[in-house]
Specification:
It holds the Pfam family Oxidored_FMN. The chain is of the alpha/beta class and 389 residues long. 30% of the residues lie in helices and 15% in strands. It contains twelve helices and 14 strands. The strands form four sheets. An eight-stranded parallel β-sheet has the order 3-14-13-12-11-10-5-4. The protein has a two-stranded antiparallel ribbon with strand order 1-2. Strand 1 and strand 2 form a beta hairpin. Bound molecules: flavin mononucleotide.
Length: 389
């Protein structure tokens, strides 16, 4: 950042575990549906490197952990060799510009339909309750679902293992294939790939389908009590942390959200139980959606706060949802968060940290092109400050 502008809280350095961040403006995980055939495309090299700043943290769009994990068209995965190879140049480009890049791992669970599933089978979930059609976060598209198949208790470890294998793949995306063990013991190797993983435990997808009591209707060890409902999430965290090291693991949670009909009767207790449990694993960060974001797109007035979770979590705390420059600065200045994650503003302003530094006007985002598959329009054609002034 240049010396002429006064330093604002968002642009102060921060140490995230072993990573030295130069500022606190984080790129949110943003599904863009431009990974044709579920394989990341070369155009993503430009998209991500546009949004990279030296010492800035980026979180990738959600990557499906297996062929049962998908739910939307052309979202990337990280379970095949081809997908792993396709991520490498994207990760390299971010590293070339000095960025720190975490890969988000997800499983849509029942937020899917037979069209996205292997052999046209039913999507899997904690439940067999059908989700009604949902308006997507662009406020335009409506997604339709198929009645899910409730996972048997003995199948759950297999899904946990899918996360573990995907985590290994993401790390193989970062090191020379076959030299995976070097990553843990010789850190010098990590610069050739993803620096860490974020487990997507938010927004009504599979992990929330277990955590939230409005969805989970299981009678086994994965249903009923709060501890039981959080068991799957924590087993995933443990498996991934054991695979790549807890210091490279983050988790995204949205205890207060209602996305995908996945609400909870006591979100504060859920949020607190999760952060207290995550403390035991000593993971790098917890990334939490603001209670005002009941859905991805709508900000509502809400008396709830993330502060109890922020205070209870011992490592780095990221907040997301409806932040602008002023609210982000306030959150850092008042110690409500360590890092502030920006979704739609970063999508439309590739140089967002620079614009915040200069207090420059922002490009407006266009919801209509959030999920259109054009490799340029609404993807890599948002202008930089230098080109707009
Ligand atoms: C187009 C779009 C795609 C998104 N994709 C993801 C995703 O893949 N994973 C995720 O955790 N959140 C996803 N989100 C949610 C954002 O990460 C973020 O939490 C949300 O946009 C609120 O932040 P904002 O108000 O700064 O936009 C998406 C949001 C949008 C608008």
């Amino acid at each position: 950042m240049s010396a002429e502008a006064p330093t604002i809280p968002l642009l102060t350095p921060y140490k995230l575990g072993n990573f030295n961040l130069s500022h606190r403006v984080v790129l949110a995980p943003l599904t863009r549906q431009r990974s044709y055939g579920n394989v990341p495309q070369p155009r993503a090299i430009l998209y991500y490197s546009q949004r990279t700043s030296k010492g800035g943290l980026l979180i990738s769009e959600s990557n499906s952990v297996s062929d049962t994990a998908q739910g939307y068209p052309d979202t990337p995965g990280i379970w095949t060799k081809e997908q792993v190879e396709a991520w490498k140049p994207i990760v390299d480009a971010v590293h070339d510009k000095g960025g720190i890049f975490f890969c988000q791992l997800g499983h849509y669970g029942r937020v899917s339909n037979t069209g996205y599933q292997p052999n046209g089978q039913a999507p899997i979930s904690s439940t067999d309750k059908l989700l009604s059609p949902q308006i997507r976060s662009n406020g335009i598209d409506v997604a339709h679902f198929t009645t899910p198949r409730r996972l048997r208790t003995d199948e759950i470890p297999l899904i946990v293992n899918d996360y573990r294998l995907a985590a290994r793949n993401a790390i193989e995306a970062v090191v020379v294939t076959g030299c995976y063990s070097y990553l843990r013991y010789f850190d010098t190797y990590h610069h050739v790939g993803f620096d860490g993983l974020e487990i997507h435990g938010a927004h009504g997808y599979l992990i929330e389908q277990f955590m939230k009591d409005k969805v989970n209707d299981r009678m086994d060890n994965y249903g009923g009590s709060l501890e039981n409902r959080c068991r799957f999430a924590l087993e995933v965290v443990e498996a991934v942390a054991n695979e790549i090291g807890a210091e490279r693991v983050g988790v995204k949670l949205s205890p207060f959200s209602d996305y995908g009909e996945a609400g909870d009767s006591n979100p504060k207790a859920l949020g607190l139980h999760m952060v207290e449990s995550l403390n035991k694993y000593d993971i790098a960060y917890c990334h939490m959606a603001e209670p005002r974001m009941k859905t991805v797109a709508d900000k509502v007035e809400c008396p709830d706060s993330l502060l109890p979770m922020r205070k209870a979590f011992k490592n780095t705390f990221l907040v997301v949802g409806g932040y602008d420059r002023e609210a982000g600065n306030k959150a850092i200045a008042e110690n409500c968060a360590d890092l502030v994650v920006y979704g739609r503003l970063f999508l439309a302003n590739p140089d967002l940290p620079r614009r915040f530094e200069l207090n420059a006007p922002l490009n407006k985002y266009n919801r209509e092109t959030f999920y259109t598959s054009d490799p340029i329009i609404g993807y890599t054609d948002y202008l930089f400050l230098e080109t707009t002034t």
